[in-house]
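Q: Is it fine to ask for two folds in a single conversation?
A: Yes, each is treated on its own. Send the first.
Q: Here.
A: Result:
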Amino acid sequence: MGFFFGGAFEAVFFIMFFLVFGMIVFTLIRGVAEWNKNNHSPRLTVSASVVTKRTQVSHHHHHHAGGGMHTSRSTSYYVTFEVESGDRLELRVSGSEYGLLAEGDFGMLTFQGTRYLSFDRTAREYQ
């Protein structure tokens, strides 16, 4: 019992702390790298159609100082576009954009790297 409450508990605590801290730092670095890559990518506008739409719901649990817990959730919205060459591109969009787009819509997609910028509907030009 002395072993667990001695050095082993402290070692496990510090290992877990550094693992969680490392995951947070890794996530931040990856996000900044993607943001930077998008900023250095050209803005492209291409003919595209909306192929599919999907959502992803994330649940978050927050502990309060008084011992209570609060649960919240957030929804991410994704749309898959198909360009004339047949290539597909899934981009994250805002909830309002998601609501305006329908599967089968055709138009001009503007994006920069993995960043969705806009979609302007036009008459269908290719099948």
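Q: Second one now.
A: Result:
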Amino acid sequence: MAIRTSSGYVPELALVADRPAEPAEPIVGHIMLSVSQLVTDLSSRVSILILSPLGVLPANQGRGIGVALTHAALAIADARPEPLVIVQGHPDYYPRFGFVRGRTIGVLPPENLGPIDKAWMVRRRPDASGELRGRVVYPQYFLDLDD
């Protein structure tokens, strides 16, 4: 299995796991980071990253592909200037990568998501300030998916 960048809107933020030796089903997983915004308590905007989607073909799940993709995506995130990565995902899966419940550190979900809590998680870049708090605003293309 190899992990490489995929083509897309921001290519360096989209990764695929592939098996070039198996041309019938070469791509077995995908993960993407998107840029979003955090509106801080002082009403300033800070660019952050969203980790979504992460997918692995069902026949290939349980083999560490999702874990490898997540580690690779977070390595890219840690090398970028955005201080936070958010995810709306399974609360038993993402803490192993350093994600914590967003509300516990003052990073709130977009208002349109309603009262989600356990699935709303945040990971600070290792050298980021622990003082950054606010509400995430999803980019319009995320909101358009709800129409």
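Q: Anything structural to flag on that second result?
A: Two points. Residues 32-144 form a domain with the Aminopeptidase fold (CATH 3.40.630.30). The longest helix spans residues 65-78.
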